[in-house]
Amino acid sequence: MSNKDQSPNSDQSVENTLSKTQLKKQAHGLQDLAREIAELPAKKRDALNLPPALIAAIDESKRITSHIAAKRHTQYMGKLLAKCDYQSIEQQLQQDEAKNAHFQVRDAIINQWLTAYIDHEKTLNAYLYEHFPHETLNELRNLVRNYLKKPEPPHSKKLFKALRELDNQEPLPPVGQLDVKLS
Q1: Is the sign of the CA dihedral 10, 13, 14, 20 positive or negative?
Q2: pLDDT in tens, 145-183
Q3: What is the pTM for the complete model shown?
Q4: By CB count within 10 A, which of 27, 68, 83, 152 is most buried?
Q5: Residue 118 has what DSSP assignment?
Q6: Domain residue spans in the chain?
Q7: Angle of the 134-149 helix axis to the 155-169 helix axis, nearest 10
Q8: In whole angstroms, how far apart are CA 133 and each of 27, 113, 139, 171, 175?
Q9: What is the CA radius of gyration of the chain?
Q10: What is the dihedral of CA 139, 140, 143, 148, to 10 degrees?
Q11: CA gap 74, 78 in Å, rounded
């Protein structure tokens, strides 16, 4: 075929195609995403609104025991992902991961508060009375009192839950910002 026979559209399609290396990287990325989705709990997987064929393939992957068969099946799940809107699925997974990281940070701060309550109850209560309504803190005082008597579950769990509710209203600062040093 001569250069005169080629249309301008065919030149653009050649420029828009990916190289073989890029295609392989994309395929491996989709396979990794498929593995990640397959490892998710069913509740989180259902929230992703996956196509029925992919859900069936994920369910099928759980019963495959052979290494080579599992590898081939992962490739198949990657192909199914390529046919759907995998960018939005990937974005949802990243948002969930960011949300989990946020909760881990907040839980660490709440655990600092629990530890600091043993030695610095007055300082922490003073901060809470400045920043939160007094009605919500009455129950918290009782929980702190019970926790200080016996800093074990269920008292620690109840106090943690109450502090988390306060933290959801307004983020609690790390205890280091309140001039409280942990032992």
Answers
A1: negative
A2: 888 888 888 888 999 999 999 888 888 898 888 877 776
A3: 0.58
A4: 27
A5: T
A6: 8-84, 97-178
A7: 150
A8: 55, 19, 12, 14, 20
A9: 27
A10: -140
A11: 6
